[in-house]
Amino acid sequence: MAAPLLLDLVLETSTTPGTASFVLNGALQDRRSFAAAAPSGGQVFYFADDGTQAEWGVGVLTVGTPNTLSRQTIRGTTQNSTSALNFTGTVRVYSWVPSSYLPLLDGNGLLTVAGLASDKAAIKALVVSGSALVPNVGDWGSQQSVPAVQADERYLRKYGDANGAAPDLLTIYLGSGQLGVYAGGAWHTYQPAGDYATNARVNDVASSAASAASSASGNADARVLRAGDTSQNQTINGYLTVQYGSSKFSFQPDGNAVAYDGSGNSFFNVSPNAINWNGHSFAFLDNLPLDASKKLVCFMVAITSGQRVTFPSGFSAPPDSINFNSTQRLDLWWSNADAGGFTINSNSGVSQTISVIASGNR
Length: 362
Fold this sequence. Notes:
Structural class: mainly beta
Distance between the termini: 70 Å
Mean pLDDT: 83
Shape: elongated
Strand content: 25-35%
């Protein structure tokens, strides 16, 4: 918004405006009207005085029939307030600048502009036509302005490259000595001096790598399994067999992985649906009648009556069920079960080895 106007030789009267806008009666002799000096809608400095009280501030002129001046901002009154005065008689209205809008030198000959230093939320500006000469900074920890010559010497300047980005932040990582530059919304790090590969070293490494690759290629036939090799130890003919001594391990076309002993008997078999070891099959967890929050704990333990039995893998709460199996008399029951174990009880008091199956929350 444009700054309020100070109007030369403007003086009018207004009759009984109360606390409302001033209805302007026209210019007094040898003076000008507000409408003759300012555009409609323009802000103007004003003073209003009825001989007993006065107010001053910024008004907005509306040119019409009649012309009016609204009291937009009241900077002060003779009643020491910023509220509109109640004028009940004839008021003289003229244009002058309230002292709060005037830049004045202090006792040291310095100019202070109110609001520029502290009010960061408001839009404040000091506009200078032409060049403003700023003295060199005497205290870099203060709020002094920086002249161009010192800024050019002290701060980084962006190189004139349309594809370049000015750095926002710079840092040195003390642990590695790396330089870090934050630009374009990301950090970029650079190796410290001396910690980089020279052209000669890169050439040496490339030569060594080429030599190693050539050597590996020359020995590949002796070291790498190849299709069509029908020797006993290396077979790719629809399946893969690894021979170790008189035994072997085969990845077969039916999808099974099978280990054979020296007599050709299978003792370990992994299929897509099951695992078999020496005739014993193992179920997969996702085939058990348990939801994902449950688990089974199965183990063998030698016990006597009244003994505390600890689960090898505990539960998050007391288990839902505990079952036993024994080759001897099965006069067993449990008590005092918790997430970590239970107490075993027996009428006979005979020491025996039992199998335990418990289920509950993981």
